[in-house]
Write a structure and sequence with these properties.
- By secondary structure, the protein is an all-alpha fold.
- The protein has one domain.
- The protein contains eight helices and no strands.
- Helix 3 packs across helix 6 and helix 6 runs parallel beside helix 8.
């Protein structure tokens, strides 16, 4: 019964999201790789401010929390309606990472807690603090996959 309710809730959430938006990627992280060419096109065209705001809402976060991760300042992002390629790419990277995290951890809260807790395998660093570079993203993503498959270093 609970699984059916969860699937129904997920279905309603998906119906309200624009296909291929960053929030859609969170809910469809397994499907997203099949659509990489579409995502590349979306990154090149730029993420709309409304899609960014929806992603922040869906992750239960604030813009301020992502300030050090994004290549543009929050004040400059507030002035734009569509973001540049570099900022758009980082937004989609965040969406993919959160989608994977939500899939692997029991709840959004558990994933967010893990993101903010120092990790031995990441050299005692807080995973969230590593997300300001592509190498950091890769390291955090690899760690989540190791957790998913119960492979600990």
């Amino acid at each position: 019964m609970e699984a059916t309710l969860e699937n129904s809730k997920k279905g309603r959430q998906q119906a309200n999201l624009a296909k291929f938006s960053p929030s859609w990627v969170i809910l469809n992280v397994k499907d997203a790789p099949g659509y990489k060419m579409e995502l590349i096109d979306r990154i090149r065209k730029g993420v709309r401010k409304a899609d960014w705001k929806q992603l922040i809402h869906d992750t239960g976060s604030t813009e301020k929390e992502f300030e050090h991760i994004l290549p543009a300042s929050i004040s400059s992002m507030q002035k734009r309606s569509v973001y540049g390629k570099e900022t758009s790419e980082r937004i989609y990277e965040l969406a993919r990472l959160f989608g994977l995290g939500y899939e692997v951890f029991d709840s959004k809260e558990d994933f967010k807690q893990w993101l903010m807790t120092p990790s031995k395998t990441l050299g005692g660093k807080i995973p969230f603090e590593l997300l300001d570079s592509s190498f950091g993203f890769e390291m955090v993503e690899n760690e989540i996959v190791r957790i998913q498959y119960n492979v600990y270093s």
